[in-house]
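Deliverable D4.2, example record:
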Amino acid sequence: MSEDLFLCSICLDVFTDPVSTPCGHNFCKNCITQHWDINDRCQCPMCKESFTTRPDVHVNTFISEMVSQFRHEAEQKRSSSSEQQVVKPGEVPCDICAATKLKALKSCLVCLVSFCETHLEPHLTASGLKRHQLMDPVKNLEDRMCRKHDKPLELFCKTDHTCVCMLCSVLDHETHEFVTLKEESEGKKAELEKTEAEIQQMIQKRRLRIQEIKRLVNFSKEHADGEIVEGVRVFSALMEAGQSGMDELIELIEKKQRKKEKEGESLIEGLEQEISELMERSSEVEKLSKSEDHLLQSLQSLKAAPPTKTWMEISFSPESHRGTVFRAVGQLEEMLSKDMKNLVKAELKKVQHYAAADLMLSYNGKLVHRAGVRQHLPDNTSLCINGFSSGRFYYEVQVKGKTGWTLGVVTESINRKENIPLRPDDGSWTICLTNGDEYKAFAGYDVFLNLKWRPEKVGMFVDYEEGLVSFYDVDAAAVMHRFTDCSFTEKLYSHFECW
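Output generated by the structure prediction step:
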């Protein structure tokens, strides 16, 4: 039940001893009696019905019981509410509460006091206090008062950007522009809400960026794991091939050495056999030479000299292993070169995934648009494709028949109206063909490229985040040059110049 149902229209307070008039309206007994005492005419304050004689009024027992019940319930509610609204740290306390401080519900700018629910009731019911200006509770009410005029700060001076009282607006800010504090507060609140919305939008964007970075980190990890697996496979194969080559080399050298040793042993065995036979004949000759009797007859019994070889003329030299290691390393190098070419082919196939759409250059060499066909560029053409500041990018350039060209990427801030400084420190990562057959990269100094074939189609791949610029001989599936650990901080443009 609403409290308005039990308010006396004279005192504007809850009924005390409610009585009813003949016209059916209810008032406090004391209120209606005093009203008729001070007025000449006896009439109802509500409907203005006049009575020839003052009517007898009796207590309305039904309303009296309802008021009594309402007061009891309101008191219980107030008591329960007060128990639950004990002031907490950071909240504004009631200035009237003596013992346990309760939480203030409103602050009065006239009284300069903050009230809990119980002590606020007079300001809600008493006619004199209803005119006071109430606001949400604040701790320092003195700050809401004009220090100069001791009046409530009710206006905001937009000219001086300060809060003022009514006297200030007339005396000190006469020609200034004013709005109410409520209006200014609502405006500031709207600005704060807009700022909060912008901040939340910024937070959301950053959260999305975090998710994107996490996704890229996971993608990078998957890519790294794949590269590790591939690297382990390749290097394991290389080490296995190297070990196999080394084993074959050792076996070949040892086989040759065993053959040479067997040959030497055979020669030594022959020599030792002849030595044994010669020593035996020498012994017989010596024995006969010392005999004095029948020498001639003894000489007839002497065996004929065994046949001998001219051992000094038989060729025998140590085995030469010169070139064996060189040939083995050459075979390994050939195998490595083949594997390297396969790796470059696989790498080239991956980076071609990031190829740009076909581009058509205008005849004046200044505009680029998408096209579905290849285009033969005229000599002395300089081309800058749309810049990019993240991700990966790949495209190929036909350089067949060109006597000179420059290909690479340059930064957005580089002065393209003048000669471009071909140095990474100045924002340029390029390679070129000069003098018809001289290939080099500009790395702050000339790096001459030792190429086995003359490139006819050059591919360029850029990984912005990785800081990588790679150049490929597409037909030979070979890496021409790489710029690594590049520090990209601004938009990059692809640069191509030929003549």
